[in-house]
Amino acid sequence: GRLLLANDEARRLLELPADVEGCVVRELPGLDPATLELLGSGREASDEVHFAMGRLLAVNQRPTDHAGCPGGTVVTLRDSTELQAVSGRAEAARERLELLYDAGLCIGSTLDVVRTADELAQVAVPRFADFVTVDLADPVLHGDEPAPTATDMRRVAVSGIRDDHPLYEQGRLIDFLPSTPQARGYDAGRAELVTDLATAEGWHAQDPKRTRQILDYGIHSLITAPIRARGAVLGIANFWRAKQEPFDTEELSLAEELVARAAVSIDNARRYTREH
Questions:
Q1: What predicted TM-score, i.e. pTM, was given to this entire model?
Q2: Selection from 135, 209, 192, 122 nearest residue 161 by Cα
């Protein structure tokens, strides 16, 4: 069939040329095959979502033939791009609140430093990160005050979607180089976002062989957040992604909120260890 009439809004949404009327529907320029198939088929459609010209369009199509006479179709288009974006943001906000709520319930069930760190690692996988590692200043494990720099960091918790990852194992004592995001975050007391680990030269310098294994494994993005309580940095929590999309700046604040829920419990456990 041919296009007989297109109003101004249809021309705008589909970016149709001025002389489009009279064109064969299946030959309309710029539209994807699925949209062209629908428009050319004449079949009935109700709010069928199609991606066209960078927009999400809800398409309704109805036949106009009556009593067996040859007819055509009437098509209405509704731009749902913004609605989809708003719905997506609302869903993301709901998931964020649920994660923080669960973190409040799960983290701090005991006065054990390592157990509390592990609870943080467990609650974030897989909803926020594919892997989580928690490193505490080694003196914290004995109830003492942490060191001012990210040296003598003990890996106390590891959680992930798989067990065959090349991240440092639990129990490893790590001296982070000043160039690493872990050391920068620890020293400054604020979270660090690395959207692409492949280009993070300071991180590579820590252990070139190990970082190459991590990249080859598919881990590509990192948020490292300091564990702060009562003005002191007790350690760092590292959130790693492999299967999910890279972390973005909005997720940086979520990581900080998750860690904040654990920080007070870890500090309470540290003080309990010192006193007992």
A1: 0.71
A2: 122
**Number of CB atoms found within 10 A of residue 114's CB:** 17
Cα distance between residue 181 and residue 192, in whole Å: 6
The conformation of residue 243, written as its DSSP 8-state character, comes to S
Distance between CA 117 and CA 270 in Å, rounded? 11
For the record, the structure tokens of 10 come out as 């249809």
Distance CA 105, CA 185 (A): 27
Concatenating the DSSP letter of every residue in 217-231 gives: HT--EEEEEEEEETT
Structure tokens at 1: 């069939």
The region, left, alpha or beta by phi > 0 then psi within -120 to 50, assigned to residue 34 is alpha
pLDDT in tens, 211-262: 999 999 999 999 999 999 989 999 999 999 999 999 999 899 999 999 999 9
**Domain 92-275 in this protein, CATH class:** alpha beta
For 34-90, how does the pLDDT look when each residue is reduced to its tens digit (9 = 90+)? 888 888 888 888 888 788 777 788 888 998 865 555 578 899 888 877 666 656 666
Phi-psi region of 208 (alpha: psi -120 to 50; beta: other; left: phi over 0): alpha
Burial zone of 250 (CB within 10 Å; 0-12 exposed, 13-18 middle, 19+ buried): exposed
- In order of 2, 24, 223, the CA distances from 196 in angstroms are 49, 46, 11
User: What residues does each domain of the chain span?
Assistant: 8-79, 92-275
At 147, which amino acid appears? A
